[in-house]
Fold each of these.
Amino acid sequence: MNFSVTIPAYNEAKILEQNINLLLAFLKNNFSENNWEVVIAENGSADQTLTIAKKLSETNRQVRFLQIPQPGKGLVIRQAWNSSNADILIFMDADLATDLKHLPQLLENLQDGDLVIGNRLAPTSQVSRSQRRTFYSKLYNLAARQILKSRLTDCQCGFKGLKKDAWQKIQPHLESESWFFDTELLALAEHFHLKIKELPINWQEKRTKGNKSRVRIIKTGRHLIKNLWLLKKRLARLPKEC
């Protein structure tokens, strides 16, 4: 089966070219060149991200880019996955915080699963991250498990993949165009009884002082918690069969 790797890119000019080249080198060394593509999904950047994405697509036949004017992680991933003909749909954060060695493992786990997600909170995961971010991540995931009655450990990890048929079952019911996309995706997958597998990963926070993540933890956290309750109400009205 062929697969597509989407890289959401919002103001990523400082790291985009280097990291896409690292990803391409890994894919070329580990997979047949006819089996994959990389999609740079740029959305409303104020720096040179779009210019760099265009150049990468022009010089690499397995790279294509999408330009979506409106910012929003969920929006760009949804559009990238809807535009792909691949059998397996994956997304990774642009900073490549997840060790690339886990890509083959994700694909292997999808052989008998519908959706595979990176788990930074597993006992065997090796994670380099600030204590503050780790604390808020654990707090949010605890809230998600309690409110949504989820069994999953790490809802918001930026490393997920699923089969195209699973995506087609979920995507008509997705509403989020923001960071809540991850949680909504998994909640719908659980609601429809899809087989979800959690993959322990090595994860390293790579944002430098001049290129910190634009996620404002407190503000985003409040938004996510509010959306958890709204999602819980929506799931209660949704049939179990899609």
Amino acid sequence: MKDELILELKKSVRAIDVLFRENKTKALTEYGHGVYDMAKRIIVTWK
């Protein structure tokens, strides 16, 4: 279950990175940016 969650988070973070590149700050709301940052932290912590 944990591995599946990490895989989905990686896919989501990668999609945001590809779609928005340098414009992540402009594209994401404050809430969305917080969720994006949290997902990246979870991925690094649970490796």
